[in-house]
From TrEMBL:
Residues 8-175 form the Glycosyltransferase 2-like domain. It holds the Pfam family Glycos_transf_2. Gene3D superfamilies: Spore Coat Polysaccharide Biosynthesis Protein SpsA, Chain A (3.90.550.10). Keywords: Transferase. One of its GO terms (molecular function) is transferase activity. One of its GO terms (biological process) is single-species biofilm formation. This is N-glycosyltransferase.
Amino acid sequence: MIQKKIDVIIPAYCPGAEFEALLNRLEEQSYPVRRIIVMNTEEKFWNPCWEKEHPLVEVYHLKKTEFDHGGTRNRAAQISDGEIMVFMTQDALPADENVIRELVSALEKDPNIGAAYGRQLPSPSCSFVEAYTRSFNYPEESSVKTKKDLPVYGIKTFFCSNVCAAYKKEIYQKLGGFVKKTIFNEDMIYAGGLIRQGYGIAYAAQARVIHSHNYTCCQQFHRNFDLGVSQAQYPEIFADVPSEGEGMRLVKKTFAHLLKSGKWYLIPGFVLQSGCKYAGYLAGKRYQKLPRKLILKFTMNRSYWE
């Protein structure tokens, strides 16, 4: 079988040891990567040794004011001439040498599949609740979602994460790529358009990366505020597919899991964190009614508004 040209694209900001580990794992992949395109914010935080030690790396520096979740990735996509583009974040670590192979395999199963995303596993330091959230959002079974799944999965039909996701360049260009300016959520905005245009999204459960965060309640509020803003700004994608139902399903299943596991003492903290998520999301959905001063307090991404 003729191998596709694969470019990996990674936005980076203050990359450290985890980034070095990511580069090493990418070089060890069983399906070869042709280029690793790094969109690095602020050159002063970049270690020039990475280019010398990792010949696949091409770095493009930009100022913090130039960074945008959609626009920066879209700029990298224009630099890439790969047939398949794999987007990753600097803190996602491939669990083995087959991540790229599994993503490509998922994409190639059907010419109508435009994107494939991998499974995110909890890191050793991940909290009990967050580890369960990973298993809820990233189950063991692979799947393909299309427009016909909207009545069943709702907002989950659009789920796709640029922590580790692959895109067919031809379809990406046809649909116009990621939005040029967005506060957050560029992957789901594109995935929503992909689904509505009749394409499919594959979830490749065997393309596994280690990636998780232990967010505080305040961080969850800020993050979900920006999520709500992104959905409010693209009503043509999200207006008729509310996400509250999926959120409630996660809350109920996590609650049951905590009781079943004998971790009942984690329930108060989980309830508080869930409340912060929902409050942030609702505020973000209604951001146009909020004063600018409040928006700047609520957002995770102040530079977007400045």
